[in-house]
Amino acid sequence: MKELELYIHIPFCIQKCRYCDFLSGPADDASKYRYTKALIREIESLPEGRESIITTVFFGGGTPSVLPGEWTARILETLKKRFSFAADAEITTEANPGTVDKEKLRIWRESGINRISFGCQSSFHEELQMLGRIHTWEDFLESYALARESGFDNINIDLMSGLPGQKLKTWETTLHRAAELKPEHISAYSLIVEEGTPFASMNLDLPDEDTERMMYSRTREILAGYGYGRYEISNYALQGRECRHNIGYWIRTPYIGLGLGASSLFGSTRFTNTADMKEYLRNSAHPDRLRRNIEHLEKKDEIEETMFLGLRLARGIDKRRFEKTFGKTVREIYAPVLDKYIDLGLLKETEEAVFLTEDGISVSNAVMAEFLLDSY
Ligand code: SF4
């Protein structure tokens, strides 16, 4: 059976963070309930995936943990009725500190959720306030401890560098404080100021480029000291605890996104659900009516995507898998680009793989851009 990943979008948050451009916002309980029912209708009506085996599920948002535990369990139960699940499927939910309690965590565990990704971002009160987060570091510590007590043995902590006013020292302290808790996984992204967010219209005192670069290289060094390997540009894990769902995206495992604005890659087609809530609620029993931006990928697009996404991974592009998928070797298609960047020390090629070197990672966007194909 073919592997398939599922993404479930929960577009609700207690309040909007100042940097956030995700499809999410506050809502009352009645709206959340209507949405959950619509989501269940979409799952039950989905035409795809009957021949596939579900290897990962990811509840993202928004803040999925704002839903009552029973509703999340009901969504998962519907998924399990509708799809065949692998016995060891990785089932993650994102959660924000302060939105979980013992009872919710118990229900999650019993429903089959086996991984939690906490949005923490910083260990400093002033930084969290400036970001518009709803929680303190102490709230995070409490939620993290509760999750551990409830038996969760696979936890990610999301952190954010490059914040306004942030110094290298404070970033390093946040990394140490998080790593000392021994989560299985740490995601460390740098802030991007997105258009249309409150941050975009503020005069922010952002760290300069050199400090940002230092923050990036110190992240790797500090986390390596605690046993975390960098397996993707911004993701670190203890051995064997890499996020299988995200790796799936980077190696182009098919995935279906359910819920408002969720994206899918199925067969050679990409599509996105409507971002209009009224439309979603009206049409969720007819998934075909929800779909927008339907894009049928040519072989050329798939090759390019394989290179862009695969080069984000430390292990790089699996040469054998590439040849099996496209009927040609990476070298047959990309020899001049490979040779150019191997000579510059930015790429490395072994018997099994092609991957970015440390120097290559720091200029990854420029290197990846050269893997665009004029024609195929
Ligand atoms: S909690 Fe996450 S999704 Fe919600 S507003 Fe903040 S950053 Fe955005």
Short description:
By secondary structure, the protein is an alpha/beta fold. The chain is built from 15 helices and 15 strands. Iron/sulfur cluster (SF4) is lined by residues 13, 16-17, 20, 22, 24, 61-63, 96, 119.
Number of strands: 15
Instruction: Work out the oligomeric state of the chains in this entry.
Output: single chain
User: End-to-end span in angstroms?
Assistant: 30 Å
- CATH architecture of the largest domain, by name, is Alpha-Beta Barrel
Name the helix and strand elements from N-terminus to C-terminus, one letter apiece: EHEHEHEHHEHEHEEHEEEHHEHEHHEEHH
Unreliable segments of 5+ consecutive residues: none
Rg measurement, Å = 21 Å
* CATH fold-level topology of the largest domain: TIM Barrel
Please give the domain count: 2
* SS element count, helices: 15
Give the % helix: 40-55%
Bound molecules: iron/sulfur cluster
Biggest sheet strand line-up: 7-8-6-5-4-3-2-1-9
What is the H level of CATH, i.e. the homologous superfamily of the largest domain? Answer: Aldolase class I
Shape: globular
What's the CATH class label of the largest domain?
Answer: Alpha Beta
SS content category: alpha/beta
Strand content: 15-25%
